[in-house]
Every structure is written in C-alpha cells, then in structure tokens.
Amino acid sequence: VSGMPGTAIKNFSCVIYNVSLMNCTWSVGRDAPGDTQYFLYWQNSREEETQCELYVKDENGRHIGCQFQNVTIKDTTAYFMVNGSSKDSLIRFYDEYITLYRIGKLTAPLNITANCTGEPRGCVIEWQEPLTSHVENKDCFQYEIDIKTK
User: Fold this and answer.
1) Which of 30, 104, 105, 149 is least enclosed, having the fewest CB within 10 Å?
2) Hey, what domains does the chain have and what are their CATH numbers?
3) What angle do CA 63, 21, 7 make, to 5 degrees?
C-alpha cells in the first residue's frame, strides 16, 4: 500500500435517511500533514464511479464528510474510496465495500390513525409501512407500539 502510515482517514461511516439521502463522515488521519485534502469516490452497483459533489468541511477547510442526494439502494454492495493529496507526503487511501440496505435508517410509519370507541373494543390503531427504496417483502417490517396513559 502506497502512502505514509497514519495518513489515511479513520472512522469512516455512512447512513442513508429519508429514503434517498446519504451522509458519509470520517476523521482526518492521525499523521496527515496540515495541507492534506481528502476526496471521496463511490460506485453503486455497475454504475460509473463518481466523486462527492457536496463535501462537509472542518474549520481548516478539510473535507471530513459528504452528502449525497438521490441515492438508490440496489440489492448490492457499493464501493467507497477516500484518497488524499498533500504537498508534503503521499497520502494513503482508504476503501470499503458497504451493503447499502444495512446502513439505511427507516422513516416512521405513515398515516398513523387511532380510533378509540371505548369498551369493549378499545382503540384501533392503523398505519402504513415506512417509505423505502428497497424492501420488497412488506411482511419483514416489525412494529412496536408504546402507549402512554395519562
């Protein structure tokens, strides 16, 4: 592996929320020179590799994250690679394969209604499953109702 040890990013993680928004974050390498700048590339399925378009920066202007829009989860693994550049030293790259559906945060169930008619029937609570781009079997959702009484 080329690049100085300790210059690659650390603590890389990504989360998909609201169905199609993805946030990736990382920490600057421990031994990366002060002028190091990082660049994130990713490849979803067999699509072309694309670079991040919207970087999140730290107070020194270094890229420490990326926001993606219109992400579609195909039932496959995506490839992520973060490389870096510096005038002072070679920066080691970091890469990881991530199964996208594992990093998706589900939205809340939709159209929740509670209809309370009193005894003996009590309350009927109904909802629709959360929005998602990849779950084909709606039976795999599990729900929990937490009823607070006053």
Assistant:
1) 149
2) 10-102 (2.60.40.10)
3) 25
